[in-house]
Amino acid sequence: MYPVLERIAYLNAGSVGPLAQVTVDAIVEGRRRDLEEGRSGRPYLDAMFAARERIRGALAAELGVPPENVALTRSTGEGCNVVVAGLRLGPADEIVTTDVEHFGLLGAVHASGARVRVAAIRVRPAGEAFDAILAGITPRTRLLALSHVAWTSGHVLPIHELKAETGLPMLVDGAQSVGAIPVAAAGLDWYTISAQKWLCGPEPTGALYAADPEALAIAQPTYFSQRAYKPDGSFTPKDGAARFDSGWIDPPSLAGLEAALAVHPPWRFERAAEMAARCRALLAERFDVVTEPGHATLVSFRWPGDDAAEAAGRALERRVAIRDLPGTRWLRASCGYWTSDEDLERLLTCL
Amino acid sequence: MYPVLERIAYLNAGSVGPLAQVTVDAIVEGRRRDLEEGRSGRPYLDAMFAARERIRGALAAELGVPPENVALTRSTGEGCNVVVAGLRLGPADEIVTTDVEHFGLLGAVHASGARVRVAAIRVRPAGEAFDAILAGITPRTRLLALSHVAWTSGHVLPIHELKAETGLPMLVDGAQSVGAIPVAAAGLDWYTISAQKWLCGPEPTGALYAADPEALAIAQPTYFSQRAYKPDGSFTPKDGAARFDSGWIDPPSLAGLEAALAVHPPWRFERAAEMAARCRALLAERFDVVTEPGHATLVSFRWPGDDAAEAAGRALERRVAIRDLPGTRWLRASCGYWTSDEDLERLLTCL
To answer: Are A243 and A305 part of one and the same domain?
Structure first.
């Protein structure tokens, strides 16, 4: 199903997932159609809009939420900018985040102009994250912005517990969770999807869940945001979260994403968790593993040498794809339902 | 070179351009590589960054500006949002625009929160645009935001003359100019490119020229914006306009865009102007043509019937691709260097 697995022990879906044959077939077929029939006209546009709605539904199902609460984006970072810019915060406001976040979230947080409080959880046991994040909250906190699964440590953060405890607006970076572990976004405020990672879609594709779309300003309108507009740019937004749709996605990529979403088996989460646990146990025999047991599908571990980037490069030469985490000496292996025992053996052998 | 032309009189590059065989070949080749080799690792990323820099250079050349003043975006609308949000305007500020603009520009203008003054030029002779736009300027004007070639009327707006006269910051929507007519962005402040139209690139691709990148706030940071960042999201921007690079473009699309940019012949502008003039003359024999002679490569004309959208649909059924302009009874034909006399004959025959 995933041809790259025949050549490479591909343990890097946390960066970008493997592509299925049917996904690339759909893209190629779509581009051939574009080549011969052109990229315009009512039937072409109608098919594009219909594909967007089917994908909106499929991605909503990944989060267990209604399609009308989901916007189509092209990355988690885009979703984060939509939310944080739409909140119109200023220097008197505060955002609480953590020190295990990706720049896709942090850049938006910084651009808000709000004061940013960073909970230090990276070098603490996962069980201490809840209290460390709570300690950052003040009466001026307007937003909690954090990931569901940390791209660095691989730990699951207690997002639902934090929401229940604080009731504060919460933006969740779902880049390392959706497609990797079961996700239920209901009860949260905003939740992002990176469809090119664990969902194995073409890049750049993604989505943004918004519990209450009408409550957020549209800071970055696109042609997809509006149903009608006036010459001064004032406009009637589309109903629901579609008003935050972030821009054109080429129809071949839409077809590829639809194909990608259709191939995942019902046992994907159990199998991925099992392989991640096995990967962790094997690595723990020889390395200092950062990721505690029982979290998600990323396994980070300390590289004993000086240069983790060089180690990742050497592994790739031996057809094992993992990544280093800049600014640390950590390496990270990503396990999916597609990961085999042989992939793990090859990882251990090559290190 | 453009297979769609063998099947369709494709007169709709103002929406999306025809794709060259080499462009689609490059995309397909890239996706096959992704399928078999995976989408990660240092060599993969290095090649992606190198392709971005080559394309930055090629798109800068289209505007006659240095590459360090060009950001890679995925649409004109994205570029407009980058600029207008970065200016941090408020209700005490004013933006002057016109009534021939696309929502890609207008949406950003509206979202700024500034007061918007709309110069009425759509139903006036093109020669009156200069005075009509000047009349909208007040001491509170912080930005002129307008297109180089109006997507509706097809008229060239006097952007350089307006800049010389007013000295005001100017954002130019270049969606209907770059690749269609010669463009020199030097002397202007911001200028957008839609690479999927007249440059015949894959969508969504584009660029933004910024004369003074350091002077504009980074309102929507992306991973490409920064050279280094801290846990609170504060970051060291990349040098030059690359700080406004708007997000991931898949390497197959980068390869496709590079191929697309390489096929345009040196005589493209002269030939496109010649075909547009011929198209205009033929249409004027039977229709009330909106676009005055001697403008760009769009020719808009009044459809004598009630339903221009239906007329465009019927034309496509007869393998002639033109478009209607919503809210008017206008139809629009787009002529490129690839347009043949036979295409124009088929247009006239089918109407």
So the answer is: no
Structural contact between residues A199 and A183, judged by C-beta atoms closer than 8 angstroms: no
Burial A291-311 (b: 16+ CB within 10 A, else e): beeebbbbbbbebeeeebeeb
Asked if A85 is an interface residue toward chain B (Cβ–Cβ < 8 A), one would say: yes
Whether residue A304 is found in the same domain as residue A187: no
Q: State whether residue B205 is helix, strand or coil.
A: coil
Flag whether B93 is in a domain. Answer: yes
Give the B window 3-22 contacts with A, CB below 8 Å.
3-4, 7-8, 10, 12, 15-19, 21
- Find the closest chain A residue to B10 by CA distance: A38
Residue B59 contacts residue B179 (beta carbons within 8 Å): no
Of the candidates A35, A204, A309, the beta carbon closest to that of B248 is on A204
Cβ proximity of A145 and A118 under 8 Å:
no
Low-confidence ranges of chain B (pLDDT < 70): none
pTM of the model: 0.97
User: What's the DSSP call for residue B230?
Assistant: -
The three-state secondary structure class of A191 is strand
Q: Is A167 on the interface with B (CB under 8 A)?
A: no
- Is residue B94 a contact partner of residue B116, using CB atoms and an 8 Å limit? yes
Residues B206, B342, single domain; the answer is no
Question: How many domains would you assign to chain A?
Answer: 2
pLDDT in tens, B130-147: 999 999 999 999 999 999
Tens-digit pLDDT profile for residues A212-258: 999 999 999 999 999 999 999 999 999 999 999 999 999 999 999 99
Amino acid (one-letter) located at A16: V
A146 interface with B at CB cutoff 8 Å: no
Inter-chain contact B111–A221, Cβ cutoff 8 Å? yes
Instruction: Find the domain containing B63 and state its range.
Output: 29-262
User: Domain with A11 in it: what CATH number?
Assistant: 3.90.1150.10
Q: Is A40 on the interface with B (CB under 8 A)?
A: yes
Same domain, B59 and B159: yes
Q: Is A232 an interface residue toward B (CB < 8 Å)?
A: yes
DSSP label at residue A19:
P
